[in-house]
Amino acid sequence: MKIIRAADCRTTPWKNGGGETTEIAVSPGSASLDDFDWRISMARVASDGPFSEFVGIDRSLAVTTGSGLALTIGDAADVVLDGASEPVQFAGDTPTSARLLAGPITDLNVMTRRGRFEHRLQRVSAVTTCDFGDHQIGAIVAAISEVSLLAPQGVVTLTRGDAAILTSAADAPCRIVPAPASACYLALLREFRGQAGSA
Fold it and tell me: Which fold has domain 117-191?
């Protein structure tokens, strides 16, 4: 298990220059926005506008704090997200824009490079055992408040903004205990395996 403390995370400009993002974890560790396999970050959105384009990237987004936003993804109907919503997944190369509902928000982003990695992101609001399934990596993000992890190595406490990167080989089972009346987020990642039946 690798613990990432909020104080150690770096903040960088958005790809389109419209704001800043705090990088929580990226693979490979030295990867840039142009060559990562997967990336987990949080961003503060203070104004309406378009998202950066990420060609060949699949991404998930969750609103962690604030009143929420409405996402326009391509030609689809708007998707409204707030702190109680499940994350939404979309293609990073589909034109996407956001409209704030009532003031700034903070969001959590998980991105994987299509053809290399796949992911799913879920909101965890009750005591849950991390079920890796056929995923090799789990990332637990304490985006809102404190989270306790009960892992084979012992009990670990994440404070707001911290994260833990787990592997199915070394860290299963792991119980996730969010603070009462709060939530955290679990991202599961795996290497891309291709379509069923392909060579």
Answer: Jelly Rolls (2.60.120)
Q: What pLDDT, in 10s, does the model give residues 119-153? A: 999 999 999 999 899 999 999 999 999 999 999 88
* Superfamily of domain 9-113 in the CATH hierarchy: Jelly Rolls (2.60.120.10)
Residue type, 130: C
Task: Give the strand order in the sheet containing 96-100.
Answer: 49-50, 96-100, 69-73, 79-81
Distance (Å, whole) CA 158 – CA 74: 36
What does the domain layout of the chain look like in residue ranges? 9-113, 117-191
Residue 8: DSSP 8-state: G
Model-level pTM? 0.92
How distant, in Å, are the alpha carbons of 52, 100, 101, 167 from that of 106?
Answer: 16, 11, 13, 27
Cα radius of gyration (the chain):
16
Between 11-20, 42-51, 60-69, 173-182, the lowest mean confidence (pLDDT) is in 11-20
Q: Are 177 and 140 in contact (CB under 8 A)?
A: no
